Amino acid sequence: MNTVPKDFIRIMPDVMREFIRAAFKKAGTTDEGAAHMAHLLVLTDLRGVFSHGTQQTPGYVGMMLEGKVNPQPNVQCIDESPTTAVYDGDGGMGHFASYQAAKTAVKKAKEMGMGAATTRNHFHFGGAGKYTRMAIEEDCVGFAVSCHRFRHSPSGSITTATGASPMSFAIPSGDQPPIVVDMALSMDGGVSFQQCPAAFFKILGLSHISHSLGGFLAGIWLFDQDPDPPRIWEGANQGAFIAAFDVSRFRPIDEFKREVDQHIHEARQMQPAPGYDRADLPGGLEWEREQEWSEIGIPIGEGHQNQLRSVAERVNIPLPF
User: Fold this and answer.
1) Which residues share a beta bridge with 180?
2) Nearest to residue 233, comparing CAs of 242, 215, 220, 249?
3) Lowest mean pLDDT among 24-33, 36-45, 101-110, 214-223
4) Can you say how many angstroms the Cα of residue 64 is from the centroid of all Cα atoms in its chain?
5) Alpha-helical segments (H) within 148-270
6) Counting beta carbons within 10 angstroms of the beta carbon of residue 174, is it exposed (0 to 12), middle (13 to 18) or buried (19 or more)?
7) CA torsion 249→254→260→261, rounded to 10°?
8) Domain extents in the chain
9) Is there a contact between 231 and 224 (Cβ–Cβ < 8 Å)?
10) Which residues contact 70 (CB under 8 A, 6 or more apart)?
11) Do 113 and 249 contact (CB within 8 A), yes or no?
12) Is the preceding omega at residue 229 within 30 degrees of 0, hence cis?
């Protein structure tokens, strides 16, 4: 899903941002909220993570127009300590509450050495990597997970128990691309349990870290009971846990980055994995795409174009192509 399509058109980032901003405005968001969503979704496209970028717009806008997600949430910090914070997303997109949580976690990390924040009562927060990258911009290590409410069925197989929750780690670097792991914790549809049981059990374990931190710790199940009066925003079924650690509290940052750079450089000189034409560590390809596509435009394949076309028709705005 996140490979570059063979046939595509290119759309410049500013043009795409304006289109996405207009779509969210039509869905009822504020000017600031629409610009925020456009910024984060286009940034995700620029890194080639198309699954969580602008082609999510029809679904997000649809949830707002259908009254399932609050287009103008009043995100609030409802509890705070010198190193922690808890945010309520007021039924809106997770991109609002989680962005605030990431900013707060990084701020506390710079002040106290480490910081963490949870979010709840919101919808999808998109790709986890955009929040961990906020940490490396301030020379911190970043960690982020998210989870949605769901129940295991006794009749289902344990092989379906991961819930595809996202997880991301980010490590700052110097001259080399940063190390950024950004993944959904699920098995690829073409890989069976019998083919790779060890990978499945690792993913099962990691996915339940996401459930525990982004779900139970975040408090998303607090909203699963029949409230009085009824809860308005039925799509607000998700939460997140975001943490940051200031590298300089453990090692001088220049020394740390120098060692990380050497490690990344040496890894990139190795022989590629079978079937691939380059050796790289997680985050390197996204870093290169962001630099290049910011200048020449985002490659948008036919399916992606159709997603943009569908939202343009629904809210009656001109296409960006």
Assistant:
1) 170
2) 220
3) 214-223
4) 19
5) 197-210, 253-268
6) middle
7) 160
8) 8-315
9) no
10) 64, 90, 91, 92, 232, 233, 236
11) yes
12) yes
Among 292, 311, 307, residue whose Cα is nearest residue 48 = 292
Multiple choice CATH, 8-315, 3.30.1370.60, 3.30.420.40, 3.40.50.1220, 3.40.50.720: 3.30.1370.60
pTM score: 0.95
pLDDT tens track for 88-143: 999 999 999 999 999 999 999 999 999 999 999 999 999 999 999 999 999 999 99
Length of the chain: 321
The pLDDT value recorded for residue 161 is 86
259 φ/ψ angles, rounded to the nearest 5 degrees: -70, -40
Q: If you search the block for the tokens 């590629």, which residue do you land on?
A: 272
Burial of 12 (0-12, 13-18, 19+ CB in 10 A): middle
